[in-house]
């Protein structure tokens, strides 16, 4: 039977004190998780995934978890959720598990993931999605949800798949992730990129939750400049962002997700490689092509890469270096433009 119709469709939201509250969802698809983390895979096999909602309620989601592609039956949909530097490797896995008429969908951060997947997976169609859903790994097999956000899906690179984008949008919505289709994904991609450039690297460097950036004047200024630079690079390409003011929108996101630890901060805390190249690195590279100065993104790119190589500096070392480098780069940019 089709996974679209094999499970009951339920409404997973109800209202409490004027606010939407999540209900435990019914399963809407047969899901296999392919991963590399041995401790997590062991716990998922034994106990399923423990999901902790923002209001503290928890529920367990049974799913098949493995690191062996042969254990994954031919998939109608391969959902790519890895870090951007692992996209090519994930494409190789997707190629092995996809049904002949299967579809690949990326919901990753940064730029370049769709292009990598489309190249590696031809002739399988590949689709791009953008999501504002937020969560953090509290431990192996334990995810803490910060917010469901909204997800948008764009048309795939080809056709002829068993599962269509409207099917996927309906599946996600049935599972509790509000999802719509869009015909202008590049606007959403750059809109999210600008916000990520403003928030993620600073939280990683300062080891703080998102809300701190809105409260600290120095951090707030750097966050605003990084977001505005990304918006300027988008504008130079003729891309209109889904909001009027990048700095203001980034500030609102930081305030609205005040307790959240960004994915880049989580990477740093685990000693893992970050996505800085696909975020600030992308802003710098595309900015250079269009002769748009991006000093804040260049500083953040360099500092996060240094952090990956040498370990964690102190908070005060980071703030002092960021302020010094930002001032120096702004000065050089002003002289170059004079």
What is the compact description of this entry?
With 338 residues, the chain is of the alpha/beta class. The protein has helices at 38-47, 87-97, 113-121, 165-174, 185-206, 210-215, 217-236, 246-256, 263-270, 280-289, 295-310, 315-337; strands at residues 13-16, 19-22, 32-34, 49-52, 58-61, 64-66, 75-80, 98-106, 126-131, 134-139, 142-147, 151-153, 179-181.
SSE map:
Elements: E1 13-16, E2 19-22, E3 32-34, H1 38-47, E4 49-52, E5 58-61, E6 64-66, E7 75-80, H2 87-97, E8 98-106, H3 113-121, E9 126-131, E10 134-139, E11 142-147, E12 151-153, H4 165-174, E13 179-181, H5 185-206, H6 210-215, H7 217-236, H8 246-256, H9 263-270, H10 280-289, H11 295-310, H12 315-337
Parallel strand pairs: 3-6, 4-11, 7-8, 8-9, 12-13
Antiparallel strand pairs: 1-2, 4-5, 9-12, 10-11
Fold and architecture overview:
The protein has twelve helices and 13 strands. By secondary structure, the chain is α/β, with parallel strands linked by helices. It folds into two domains: 13-183, NAD(P)-binding Rossmann-like Domain (Rossmann fold, 3-Layer(aba) Sandwich), CATH 3.40.50; 186-337, N-(1-d-carboxylethyl)-l-norvaline Dehydrogenase, domain 2, CATH 1.10.1040.10. The protein has a five-stranded mixed β-sheet with strand order 7-8-9-12-13, with helices on both faces. It has helices spanning 38-47, 87-97, 113-121, 165-174, 185-206, 210-215, 217-236, 246-256, 263-270, 280-289, 295-310, 315-337; strands spanning 13-16, 19-22, 32-34, 49-52, 58-61, 64-66, 75-80, 98-106, 126-131, 134-139, 142-147, 151-153, 179-181.
């Amino acid at each position: 039977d089709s996974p679209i119709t094999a499970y009951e469709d339920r409404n997973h939201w109800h209202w409490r004190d004027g606010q939407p509250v999540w209900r435990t969802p019914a399963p809407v698809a047969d899901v296999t998780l392919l991963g590399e983390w041995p401790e997590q895979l062991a716990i998922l096999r034994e106990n399923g995934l423990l999901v902790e909602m923002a209001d503290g309620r928890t529920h367990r989601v049974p799913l098949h978890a493995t690191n062996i592609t042969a254990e994954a039956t031919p998939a109608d949909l391969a959902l790519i959720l890895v870090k951007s530097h692992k996209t090519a490797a994930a494409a190789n896995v997707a190629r092995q598990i996809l049904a002949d008429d299967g579809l690949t969908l990326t919901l990753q951060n940064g730029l370049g993931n769709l292009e990598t997947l489309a190249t590696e997976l031809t002739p399988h169609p590949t689709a791009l999605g953008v999501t504002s859903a937020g969560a953090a790994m509290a431990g192996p097999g334990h995810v803490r949800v910060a917010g469901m956000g909204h997800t948008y899906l764009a048309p795939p690179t080809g056709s002829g798949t068993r599962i269509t984008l409207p099917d996927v949008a309906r599946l996600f919505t049935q599972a509790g992730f509000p999802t719509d289709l869009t015909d202008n994904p590049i606007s959403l991609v750059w809109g999210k990129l600008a916000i990520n450039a403003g928030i993620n690297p600073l939280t990683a460097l300062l080891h703080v939750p998102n809300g701190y950036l809105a409260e600290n004047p120095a951090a707030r200024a750097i966050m605003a400049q990084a977001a505005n630079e990304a918006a300027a690079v988008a504008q130079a390409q003729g891309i209109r962002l889904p909001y009027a003011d990048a700095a203001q929108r980034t500030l609102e996101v930081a305030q609205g997700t005040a307790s959240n630890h960004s994915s880049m901060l989580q990477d740093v805390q685990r000693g893992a490689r970050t996505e800085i190249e696909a975020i600030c690195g992308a802003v710098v590279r595309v900015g250079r092509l269009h002769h748009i100065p991006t000093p804040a993104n260049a500083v953040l790119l360099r500092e996060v890469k240094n952090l990956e190589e040498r370990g964690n500096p102190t908070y005060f070392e980071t703030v002092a270096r960021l302020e010094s480098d930002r001032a120096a780069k702004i000065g050089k940019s002003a002289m170059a433009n004079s």
